Amino acid sequence: RAFSTLKFRGRQDESARFDEAVSFIEAGNTLDAIYSLEAMTSATDSGYAILSEFKIAASHIDEGSLDSAIAIYEKISANTSLAKRLRELASYLAAANLMETASPEELILRLAPLAVQGGDWFFSATELLGILALNEGDIIGAESKFLAIQLDPSAPQSLRQRAEEFLDVI
């Protein structure tokens, strides 16, 4: 019983440290937030470690350090000890943040494994593939991606709405 009380207190401390780091971000002190979050990733093996890594990557993007953020997302996506959904989220976020700078071939390689019907990131990855096709002038490819989202009743309403708007433009 004493062990579980200590473990609970430890998690409370981690929660407070994570909240403090997030407050640094909200106050515009991104570098302080990154340092604080990096300390958490090395000091714990709880869920706060992975949350901290995602927050660090987002903070690097806010600071204009896209390469640093992508490296973190790639590290997360390669970590087989994490749940598949988290690894795929990291892959998706890397691709989403590379939409304006990576080659279409690289983006397709990153997104295609996520755009699998029934997968957790199917609709989001398919939307990015549709946008990529549209940017490349592949109207038929874009239309097929957006139709796949729009016509699927299990797609989130916001994605179905955006797909419909893209189809209207096409």
Helices and strands in order, then pairings?
Layout: H1 2-26, H2 30-43, H3 47-62, H4 66-78, H5 84-97, H6 104-111, H7 122-135, H8 139-150, H9 157-169
Helix pairs in contact: 1-2, 1-3, 2-3, 3-4, 4-5, 6-7, 7-8, 8-9
Written description of the protein model:
- By secondary structure, the protein is mainly α.
- It is 76% helix and 0% strand.
- The chain has nine helices and no strands.
- Helix 1 runs antiparallel to helix 2, helix 2 (30-43) runs antiparallel to helix 3 and helix 8 runs antiparallel to helix 9 (157-169).
- The chain is elongated and about 50 Å long.
- The N and C termini lie far apart (63 Å).
- The mean pLDDT is 89.
| Poorly predicted parts | none
SSE string, helix = H, strand = E?
Answer: HHHHHHHHH
Distance between the termini: 63 Å
Morphology call: elongated
Structural class: mainly alpha
* Amount of helix: over 70%
Roughly what fraction of the amino acids lie in strands? under 5%
